[in-house]
Each structure stands twice: as structure tokens, then as C-alpha cells.
Task: structure prediction
Amino acid sequence: MEERISPTVRLRRLTRGIRRWRAEAGLRQEDVAAALDWSKPKLSRFENAEKSAGPAEVLALAAVYGVPDAERDQYVALALQARQKGWWQRYGQDVLASNFEEYIGLESEAAEVHEFSGELIPGLLQTERYAAELMRAWIPQSDDVVMKERTDLRAQRQARLHDTNPLAVRTVIHESALRQLIGGPEVMREQLKHLVVSAKLPNVTVQVLPYSAGAIPALGLPFIVLSFPDREDPDVAFAEHLTGSVYMEDPTEVEVYTLNFSALRSKALSQRESITFLNRLAREL
Result:
């Protein structure tokens, strides 16, 4: 099985290790900075993933903390991986809107994606025409080159659904997203049919949350929870807003999102019922 390596995930793992080393050593940031003749802000940037510590910095920290050689070498390797370029980084900042680049880095190594979508079809399940209509509606509007590159980026993400070791996607989509006529009846009919086809993949679950469900958890608050193949990498919750996004890694916070997703799934139609619902909507258009 080919291992997927994301520098984003490796940097987060490296950062957690660096913080743990200092906590276990019982040292303050100023103590460590003084021992290494660093500034305190430099160490803080490494501990907060604002900058990736290189192999030399990891070796220096390991020496101060008395880290065993085997563990030290493991984190030196992480430092090298964290400085690699991710496949998505060939796209410019105009393509990777706001801090979505970090999300792509996380998703590229994730094993599972759990997504609740209230008004839009989840990106991993969007058709090219549906996505293009959304991009044309954005303000400020992007030029044709950026839109083409964003389309390609989305296709690269969606390709993971068909890998030998595919990404598992579990979605709950509110009925309002399915009835919103993005691009008109023809585009939406194609999109609904694509959801049906996607739902038949063994690694994809699509559940519709109908209007009849009434009051539901997280109403108006779409979110994603990412899980990773290595237990050392904790789940991450992700939520977007108009000009950026928020990531949650604190286990207590992530557990809230996990519980809400489970509750949403229990209120949604089953996979079989959802496919029937989607086919009916497509026929009505």
C-alpha cells in the first residue's frame, strides 16, 4: 500500500512532539531559548507550527530535552517531510483561497472525511459544472485562469475517492442544498445524478436530511471532521466562514463535532432512502 505523506500533517505531528518534549522536561520556553541561544519567539514559532523546525533545530531541542536517539531520529525525519512541497502547492495563492491550503494538506492524508453540508453540495462530490457556477458567483470574481486551476484542484481532490486505498467520505446533506438551483435545472439534475452514482461507491455514504426533520443539531453551521490513518494524528474539525476558516484540534471541541455529526446521521434518511429521494428530485427538474 502506497503511503500518503502530507507535509501539513507531518508539521502538526512534529509540533506536538516538540511541545511534549518541553512539557516532559519541565522547562520554560525562556529556559530552552537561553540554552540554545535562540530568541523566545523563535521557539514559540516552532511550537505553534508558525514555522517548521528543520533537522538541525530538532537535533538541538532533542539534546536539551534528553530525548532518546531513536525518537530523536524519528522527529528529524518528520522535520524533513514537513519541509517537502505538497502536490497542491503548485497552485498559486489566488487558487488556494484564504487558508484553504492547510485544509487541502490535511485532507490529502486523511483516511475519513465526515461532512455536514447545509446549503451546498460537498466539494468532493460536486460536478464540474456545478462547481463552475459557484465560482462564477463568488465576490470578488476570479479570472478564467484561476477558475480553470480551481477546477483542476478539485478534480485532483476527487481522484482520491477512486484510489486503490480510497478516501472514505460520509456526508449529511440538507435538503435545501439539493433544491438550490445552482446553474439551473440541467446543472442540478446532473449534480443530483452524480450524487447517486457517488453514493454507490463502497467508500462513500450520502444521507439526505429532509426538511421534515425539523429542528436539528448544528442548523446553519456546516462543518467537516477529518480522521487520519495514524493514531498519532488526532481528528481535526474544520469550519469555513466568508473570509477564512477555523480548525479545532482540542479533543473536547472535536468530540462536540463528532457527537453532532452522529446526531445528524440519526435524523437523516438512510443511504437507500437518500438515493430514492435524489432520483425523485432529479426527475422533478
In short: The chain is about 50% helix and 10% strand. The two ends are 43 Å apart (CA to CA). Strands lie at 112-117, 168-174, 204-209, 223-227, 236-241, 244-248.
